[in-house]
Amino acid sequence: MPLTPPRTLSPSKVSAFTDCALAFRFSAIDKVPEPPSMPATKGTLVHAALERLFALPPEQRTREAAGSCLDGAAAQIRTDPDFTGLALDDAAEADFFADAAVLLDHYFDLEDPTTINPIGLELMLEVPLAGVALRGIIDRLELDADGELVVTDYKTGRAPSERQEQHRLDGVRFYAFLCEQLFGKRPARVQLLYLRDPVAIIAEPTEQSLRGLRTKVGAIWQAIEKACAADDFRPRPGPLCNWCGFKPYCPAHGGDPATAPSAAVAMPVDPPLATPVAVAVGLGVGSPAA
């Protein structure tokens, strides 16, 4: 029976489909809820603290202020199901917040936040392409000293090997493509800030690299449409299975997809794009491209 393709594609969905088509179906099509994940929840917490930090005037973005931002974000996340669902005991909870503080402190080893001119934080952008909406949430969009756009993405996991760097950069190139299409201006730089190590991976988007990304995403979308039409989403067993929340339902591990929770109790469909694009334009990036 044919399936309805998702309405949007994001860097995480593109990566999910290339990693394992069945996991993509569970997440993006069936909307099967995943159990809370310690790394993902901790990443959410650190991102929220950094968002608070960059909402402050530049001269106030100190390590001490970052600690206060983390405290505020921690108070908010304590009631979030993604945190309460972890069911941490007192010792594990203390370790959780202590490690988040270490990650946040490592950020200051990568750049000086007082020199950053953010024009968008957690900025959602959307662009139509060949029957699907490309959507992404940029952790930080800024203007550098020359007035050029810079896309920054924070990562709380380990930095990739040199062989994997280009694959990881595809996500921020995706954001660069969205910026170019919406604002008529290609970012001069994209960067991944890995807080665990800490390491910065920086690249300069080119016309060729963004054209290649567009071709790749278009091909992946065609493959998704084909898989939906044939209801053919096959598992791809590998090391990532050890962290997959859908493993209990996967036939490659003795599971049955039919036992996965129904969409009726799962996540809602992707919401329509609201106002963030207008916010960014109003901050002086420029007008969306025609």
Describe the protein in words.
The structure is a single chain. The protein contains 9 helices and 6 strands, in the order βααααααβββαββαα. The chain has about 290 residues and is of the alpha/beta class. Among the domains are: about 40-115, no CATH class; about 115-210, Lambda Exonuclease, Chain A (Alpha-Beta Complex), CATH 3.90.320. Strands 1, 2, 3, 4, 5 and 6 form a 6-stranded mixed β-sheet that branches. Residues about 265-270, about 270-285 and about 285-290 have low confidence and may be disordered.
Question: What is the fold's blueprint, element by element?
Answer:
Blueprint: E1 8-9, H1 11-19, H2 21-29, H3 38-54, H4 63-77, H5 81-84, H6 90-107, E2 118-129, E3 132-143, E4 149-155, H7 165-183, E5 189-194, E6 199-203, H8 207-230, H9 276-282
Parallel strand pairs: 1-3, 4-5
Antiparallel strand pairs: 2-3, 3-4, 5-6
Helix pairs in contact: 1-2, 3-4, 3-6, 4-6, 7-8
Q: What's a quick, concise take on this entry?
A:
The chain has about 290 residues and is an alpha/beta fold. It has helices at about 10-20, 20-30, 40-55, 65-75, 80-85, 90-105, 165-185, 205-230, 275-280, and strands at about 10, 120-130, 130-145, 150-155, 190-195, 200-205.
Structural class label:
alpha/beta
Spans with pLDDT under 50 lasting ≥5 residues?
264-269, 271-283, 285-290
The N- to C-terminal Cα distance equals 38 Å
Report the sheet with the most strands, covering strand number, pairing sense and barrel closure. 6 strands, mixed
- In percent terms, what proportion of residues is strand? 15-25%
User: Please, how many helices?
Assistant: 9
H/E element string? EHHHHHHEEEHEEHH
**Cα-based radius of gyration, to the nearest Å:** 20 Å
Which second-level CATH architecture of one domain applies?
A: Alpha-Beta Complex
Number of strand elements:
6
| CATH fold descriptor of one domain | Lambda Exonuclease, Chain A
Mean pLDDT, to the nearest integer, reads: 90
Q: What share of residues is helical?
A: 40-55%
CATH C-level class of one domain: Alpha Beta
